[in-house]
Amino acid sequence: MTARIFSAAVLGIDAHLVHVEADITPTQLGNFIIVGLPDAAVQESRERIRSAIKNTALQFPTKRVAVNLAPADIRKQGPAYDLPIALSILTASGQQLSLPAPLSECLIVGELALNGDVRPLQGIVSIVMSAKELGFKHVFVPVDNASEALLVKDILIYPVKHLGDFFDFSENKYWQPIQHNQDSEKLTKTKTEIDMENIQGQECAKRVLEIAAAGGHNILFFGPPGSGKSLLAKAIPGILPPLNPDEQLEVTKIHSVAGMLSNDKPFIRHRPFVSPHHSASPSALVGGGSIPRPGNISLAHRGVLFLDELPEFPRQVLEYLRQPLEDGIITISRASGSWKFPAQCMLVAAMNPCPCGFVSDPEKNCTCSTFDIERYKKKISGPIIDRIDLFVHVPRLSFDELKSKTKSESSKAIQKRVSITRAIQTKRNKYGFYNAILPQKFLKDVCIIDADSEKFLKGAVDRLGISARGYYRLLRVARTIADLEKSKNIKTAHLAEALQYRSEIVWK
Length: 508
Hints:
The protein is α/β, with parallel strands linked by helices.
């Protein structure tokens, strides 16, 4: 006898349909084989499945059992096929399943414990999204993944706790689909720990932060230790506009594949803020591994990637950021195929101006030689510098500034302006790009400047030797400044302000 169960394989951040086919053939000596390009974890599932069926008081066939995972050209990895393999074997052996719908309308995933319990998986959001796109109406997921699966609307989700649930005929009410719980959204709402109004002084840096947030631009803070660079960076999430529903699903999908969701945090409803240590490996930063997984830059998608102490990162590791910072996507290639992970995030970096940190400090003497300072700065290559839009010096605060009772503007007030500015940008073109990622082909239509402004811009580019990439990034920043002022055209003042944040002016 044969039977077929539908399941799914997660490749990159997307899921693909897998047919789990079981065939039982009478032989004198029973054996159990799995084909269809399975990895070691799938091969090991044979022992988990045997024990789970035996401990659920069900009968494992004593005949020859062959399981095929189709299509055979996609490598099957991980334990997600345990449950569908077990169910296909039991169905093929004539043991009837208790289901709310025909098997052809159901997609089933889950890892089995030896006692028959169903354990959670990674990538459930991708699996449920794929099931919906393929027309499945019923999806069975581990009970611990149920809250996560509910993020995908208009599909019926059934939580599975034990293999025996599929053979419980006493009460079919068990298979009532779970409902979306609005209260669960409260679990993911975070309160901004750092409000801009609680940061003393640094008004120039706050202005640059607003511009960066409004246009999604990359930014670098540099200044002496303790001047507030990290504090400013950590306040950025509070001034960014909230994620819209599509972005929430997109970000949650990435974190689901990375295995970073839980019952306490089933959804991502706020913009991520990812801050890896400078000892992070290339695969940790951009993604990779034998089974490619998202890296820090993908986990920061639609949010902020904060690299503190930038020169302390190995230069080779930073060079891996070149392509994703430019394209907003990272491609990981292996002999078995290529995987693409989204990486559209704001890069926020912070560093000292020299090894000791005090070359720009008026109160403390720098102990570094000119050679040491130049070598320290050269740890960051020119191409990486060219991909940063805004440079801002963060000086040490005086005693009077620290004790000042003057309150700065709150994050909420700044966020309101940032949201309005981003709305202007997304409405300006049908693709919804904000300025930092606006394709070059749209710049001529968006970045309109008059004759005087063009003359000013030409002089600056020629005098400072700004590269082509730098020129277009300068235009994008000026466009953001104009949008903050709700100006239709870019004026000379907007170009002048954008220019003063360029590395050619600040980076000395």
